[in-house]
């Protein structure tokens, strides 16, 4: 895979101010969307996985936006084929999209502060004990200040077509009497698998204990409920738990991977064979005009009796629909109504 960090932040503007700039923007935008993520692109970080606790999450629609606030773009618009306006988080060495460990830690800690009732309900479900406000605060400090380590989250596998990135649009309303101007942004695709890595420890607060496996379960639930990255208030960043399998991509994606060419100057032909090009077929699966509206993220915990084991568990609901689909005790499915 071509180093996307260099491509996005350097090559993108190599010919700024010349007639070639428009061509570069259009070609790089297409290249970014058509890249196929291969197993050889997976970044193991050496022997890191031998010492870490790992959580695999799959991104749900509409995707994940990371570090949106970074500056990118000069304001140019080439007949609708405009520049990507938001910055993005790419690893400097590998060039791949990633979530910095500091961001992983910061987002999880923010849930402890801003979603305290949800944290209390989840802790009660996984430890079968009531947690007071003071005990949760002590646990928070023990996790995020004293002991546990949070590593970068990396791409584990692409979506069903092998892609990891695509374009989307936001429409900020700057004036109540003027039509909004759509802004092209970059996101990680729905269906992409992320690998979250931690070095976790067992924790004791008074007479209550939570081992690292239960702590990982707590993080899993918080990720599913409240998301990660930017614009979670309009549905971005929501994920679901998944496994560490790598299902085969569509045959079309496998054929496309052998046809990729580097999108910019012929002077830098590095890694020409690792991307993909759908030859116009991408629009068949990416019809933005027919997409459903993003899901709003308003959640609430509801205590229920599991219909299988008859034990007390909980579910989180949005609009009457259950978000977590299995009992935390017996691991059998809960009602989806």
Explain this structure to me?
The structure is a single chain. The protein is α+β, with helices and mostly antiparallel strands and 337 residues long. The protein has 2 domains: 4-297, no CATH class; 298-337, no CATH class. Helices cover 25% and strands 18% of the residues. The protein has helices spanning 4-9, 20-34, 101-114, 116-127, 133-147, 212-226, 251-257; strands at 53-59, 98-99, 149-150, 153-157, 165-170, 183-188, 193-199, 203-205, 208-210, 239-241, 300-305, 312-318, 321-322. The strands form 4 sheets. Strands 1, 2, 3, 4, 7 and 10 form a 6-stranded antiparallel beta sheet that branches. It has a 3-stranded antiparallel beta sheet with strand order 11-12-13, covered by helices on one side. Helix 4 crosses helix 6 (212-226). It is elongated, with a radius of gyration of 22 Å. 33% of the residues are buried. The model is unreliable at 266-300 (pLDDT under 50).
Give a brief outline of the structure.
This protein is 25% helix and 18% strand. With 337 residues, it is an alpha+beta fold.
Q: What brief labels describe this structure?
A:
alpha+beta; 6-stranded antiparallel beta sheet; 3-stranded antiparallel beta sheet; 337 residues; single chain; 13 strands; 2 domains; elongated
C-alpha-based Rg, rounded: 22 Å
User: Separation of termini?
Assistant: 43 Å
Determine the mean pLDDT: 79
| Count of alpha and pi helical runs | 7
Give, in order, the helices and strands: HHEEHHHEEEEEEEHEHEEE
Percentage of residues in strands = 15-25%
Morphology call = elongated
Number of domains: 2
Protein structure class: alpha+beta
Task: Report on the biggest sheet.
Answer: 6 strands, antiparallel
């Amino acid at each position: 895979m071509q180093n996307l960090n260099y491509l996005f932040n350097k090559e993108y503007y190599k010919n700024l101010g010349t007639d070639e700039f428009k061509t570069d923007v259009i070609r790089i935008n297409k290249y970014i969307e058509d890249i196929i993520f291969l197993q050889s692109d997976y970044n193991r970080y050496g022997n890191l996985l031998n010492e870490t606790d790992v959580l695999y999450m799959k991104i749900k629609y509409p995707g994940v936006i990371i570090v949106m606030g970074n500056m990118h773009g000069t304001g140019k618009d080439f007949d609708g084929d405009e520049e990507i306006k938001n910055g993005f988080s790419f690893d400097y060495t590998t060039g791949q999209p990633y979530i910095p460990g500091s961001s992983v830690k910061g987002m999880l800690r923010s849930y402890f502060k801003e979603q305290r009732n949800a944290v209390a309900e989840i802790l009660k479900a996984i430890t079968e004990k009531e947690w007071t406000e003071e005990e949760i605060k002590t646990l928070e400090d023990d996790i995020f200040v004293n002991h546990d380590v949070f590593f970068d989250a990396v791409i584990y596998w692409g979506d069903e077509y092998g892609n990891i990135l695509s374009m989307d649009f936001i429409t900020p309303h700057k004036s109540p009497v003027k039509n909004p101007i759509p802004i092209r942004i970059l996101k990680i695709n729905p269906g992409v698998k992320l690998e979250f890595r931690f070095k976790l420890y067992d924790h004791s607060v008074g007479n209550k204990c939570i081992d690292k496996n239960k702590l990982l379960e707590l993080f899993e639930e918080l990720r599913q409920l409240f998301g990660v990255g930017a614009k979670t208030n309009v549905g971005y960043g929501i994920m679901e738990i998944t496994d560490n399998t790598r299902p085969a991509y569509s045959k079309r994606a496998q054929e496309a991977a052998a046809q990729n060419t580097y999108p910019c100057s012929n002077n830098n032909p590095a890694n020409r064979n690792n991307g993909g090009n759908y030859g116009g077929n991408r629009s068949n699966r990416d019809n933005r005009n027919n997409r459903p509206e993003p899901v709003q993220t308003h959640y609430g915990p509801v205590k229920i009796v599991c219909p299988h084991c008859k034990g007390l568990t909980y579910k989180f609901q949005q609009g009457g629909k259950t978000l977590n689909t299995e009992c935390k005790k017996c691991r059998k499915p809960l009602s989806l109504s």
